[in-house]
Amino acid sequence: MADRQVVAMLMLHFGTPRDQESRVQLAAALPDAEVGEPDEIGVFEVVPDAEDREEALQRVWDGVAASGTDDHIVFLEHPDLPEHWRRFSGRPGD
């Protein structure tokens, strides 16, 4: 049995109707996941059906993309992707 994978998320503009709606949209995009209620600053947990941490992060990332909520909801802790920016750095056209 896989360990329970918890992914912490943050609503960027907590308290606004649009961020509240975004959490609901994320939950709809992840029907097999538990999406918790936000705390007093907008942090909430998502527990996707996943075998490991990497799969959990990917499922939540895909859910954010599918729900179009990336302007309102972000990962609380940046996933461990060393030099994730490097492939995008440089001059245009390189």
What would you say this structure looks like, in words?
The model has no long low-confidence stretch (mean pLDDT 84). The chain has a single domain, classed as 2-Layer Sandwich (Alpha-Beta Plaits), CATH 3.30.70. It has a four-stranded antiparallel sheet. It has 94 residues and is of the alpha+beta class. The chain has two helices and four strands; from the N terminus they run E-H-E-E-H-E.
Quick summary of this structure?
30% of the residues lie in helices and 16% in strands.
Topology:
Layout lengths: L6 E5 L5 H13 L4 E2 L7 E5 L5 H15 L5 E3 L19
Antiparallel strand pairs: 1-3, 1-4, 2-3
Helix pairs in contact: 1-2
Specify the CATH class.
Alpha Beta
How would you characterize the largest beta sheet? 4 strands, antiparallel
Number of helical segments with 4 or more residues: 2
CATH architecture descriptor? 2-Layer Sandwich
Average predicted confidence as pLDDT: 84
Physical arrangement of strands within the biggest beta sheet: 2-3-1-4
- Give the helix level as a range of percent: 25-40%
> Beta-sheet strand percentage?
15-25%
Shape: globular
